[in-house]
Amino acid sequence: MTTQDHLKKAEKSRYERGWEKLLEIDGDAGESVIKSLKNIAPDLGRYIIEFGFGDVYSRSGLDLQKREIATIAALTALGNAQPQLKVHINAALNVGCSREEIIEVIIQMAIYAGFPAALNAMFVAKDAFFERDRNNITSA
Amino acid sequence: MTTQDHLKKAEKSRYERGWEKLLEIDGDAGESVIKSLKNIAPDLGRYIIEFGFGDVYSRSGLDLQKREIATIAALTALGNAQPQLKVHINAALNVGCSREEIIEVIIQMAIYAGFPAALNAMFVAKDAFFERDRNNITSA
Amino acid sequence: MTTQDHLKKAEKSRYERGWEKLLEIDGDAGESVIKSLKNIAPDLGRYIIEFGFGDVYSRSGLDLQKREIATIAALTALGNAQPQLKVHINAALNVGCSREEIIEVIIQMAIYAGFPAALNAMFVAKDAFFERDRNNITSA
Amino acid sequence: MTTQDHLKKAEKSRYERGWEKLLEIDGDAGESVIKSLKNIAPDLGRYIIEFGFGDVYSRSGLDLQKREIATIAALTALGNAQPQLKVHINAALNVGCSREEIIEVIIQMAIYAGFPAALNAMFVAKDAFFERDRNNITSA
Amino acid sequence: MTTQDHLKKAEKSRYERGWEKLLEIDGDAGESVIKSLKNIAPDLGRYIIEFGFGDVYSRSGLDLQKREIATIAALTALGNAQPQLKVHINAALNVGCSREEIIEVIIQMAIYAGFPAALNAMFVAKDAFFERDRNNITSA
Amino acid sequence: MTTQDHLKKAEKSRYERGWEKLLEIDGDAGESVIKSLKNIAPDLGRYIIEFGFGDVYSRSGLDLQKREIATIAALTALGNAQPQLKVHINAALNVGCSREEIIEVIIQMAIYAGFPAALNAMFVAKDAFFERDRNNITSA
């Protein structure tokens, strides 16, 4: 292999690590976000995979359950990212958080970001739980 | 006791549960916030104790380490609450989170709230860790 | 009564005071928010009643019209709480604010939070006023 | 003319300059926002025209392409003004920015406001581009 | 006078109305903001006077006390405008609001924007009240 | 070289491209941010270099002046990132924007994020310009 080939391989490796992590955490919903970027800004999807999942979510030092707790807290507090919040409520359940834990995080955000932020996030959780029940997803 | 006395006692009980939880989590820094409200708005301090700690942080369903992870994530993302972030970085250490976990949460927020929010929070963590080292606080 | 019974009564009293205040201010819309939390996070609804309405809105020192002016201003500025803004535009009318006052508050927010925030809030007001007219609510 | 007439004329002149600038930049979409305010808060529409376009967008010192780049960046970062973002993605194209430039600005916002803000803005851009293609708007 | 002269006069009239309103509401603190813009962006100061005070604060339909209640609520909720919040806490007192009303507005914001926003605003109020006491400002 | 060596080289190459871009745009101020992260979270600094500058700022499709215009707009609007805003006001001047253009972007943000956000950013610009004058930085 030429050096150029090795460079491509390294990028691919970071991409592949990210892609596996994305599928592990977000499942189909993550893949669907990446697909929806394909004919407008595929590189934004690539950065989500490479930086978001290949770099950050692949780090040690904080387990995946705590990572998802942190993400749900942040997205609830920011209040302007409901589609991403739904993806990560499912992600939290996928990596083993309980529904009760998710509800507790959202309630706690009333203290830090106010009741409207908590309310709007809770209704997203309600939708996400309802869809899982309807689709017989049994993990949580 | 008259009913009125019992009512006061009930409120006091909720207050006392909150006060104990506040001291367990935030330690002196929490007490100092409440004191600083005394001659301007003592009721705001009372609500922090009663609602924040007596109601929410006293709930089961999410352990204190995960609660503090959630709070650090939210305050990092909101970006306009640096004094409170510092209190909760110390709180996270007080309840058994590691410095590494706190750093990981803040790094992860770069994905959801951008690098400036993560940077500004990291410098708060740097200050908090430095003060603990200087004061020989050994828990973490 | 045992002390335990009195404690329960005190909590109930705070809840009841909040519930009455909620109905006075928000009417059916408030009740409907609480109901929608019932099978996901009833305690979040309880905190809205107890803390939001039993504690804060029941305070003296600021009349209800000014309280609603403040809430409309805040929700317009935050810009991520449109369902709650609609509830409080109706609440402001319920406690005696005029439509003109609500419109003025929203216009003024263009100075502090920008024109998009003011515009999006104004369209919520337009909806709320339209619904009141359609339902022949005559208070304002 | 009396002084009163001249005053009215001056205001009208500022209004007219703004109106022309609004049509040049935002086209029909701008006009439609103003119209939708007519029976609720026409003065808010007048301020958008007079202050927003008659004062600010009519200034020299920054060309219209850079002004629209700035607006798209801000609305992407704020994340709570999607209808206005769509108007200004079209505006940017109307004044000569390329689709690629708009996509680049939105990708860059992932650094400063996080990936959810960038993602949600990108989907607004996707919609806007799709509508232009469907309507055979050929400028960009 | 030529038409050009009349145009200038009309602008001056709007400016003068705004300047008087600014002094009435904000007093020296408002004047000092305008002065501090003089050698960097005097037009931004002019827009604050003309649009902020000449247009909006001069409107009828909402009295000045309610206007200041709305502004304090918004600046507390936004949480990133502490110098402006201080100016408007003084402004509220200047137009006849009581200290108690200001404290109540800030406490209420804990419901809508969270406790950190309310806390940080309360400490600004504490500073503002302290300075007024020290300077023997007797209005409130 | 083993494949492992090539992988490291590829990462290094992305890092080096980012580092050169960071120095070109932000100069010493950028380097100083990275250094300040060294003993707390060096990986956050590495991601700024690799993702922020190696990936995003190295992209074609938007020239560096427009990239800095976008960043100043976003940081002004967000209002909670004043240290980063100062770095990028200097960066904008470094890549050839004029002081007038920076002032215009900040004034324009009054429309989208309100006057307090514009005011606070303008005072950051005033500081940055003053320091450049004092240090005889002649580029702008």
Structural classification of chain A: mainly alpha
Strand residue content of chain A: under 5%
Termini of chain A, distance in Å? 46 Å
Poorly predicted ranges of chain A? none
Give the overall silhouette of chain A: elongated
Q: Please estimate the helix content of chain A.
A: over 70%
Number of strands of chain A: 0
> Largest inter-chain interface?
C-E, 35 and 35 residues
Biggest β-sheet of chain A: count, sense, barrel? none
CATH class term of the largest domain in chain A: Mainly Alpha
CATH topology of the largest domain in chain A: AhpD-like
CATH architecture of the largest domain in chain A: Up-down Bundle
Organism (chains A, B, C, D, E, F): Mastigocoleus testarum BC008
InterPro entries (chains A, B, C, D, E, F): 4CMD/NDH-1_regulator (IPR052512), AhpD-like (IPR029032), CMD-like (IPR003779)
Pfam families (chains A, B, C, D, E, F): CMD (PF02627)
Domain Carboxymuconolactone decarboxylase-like (chains A, B, C, D, E, F): 42-127
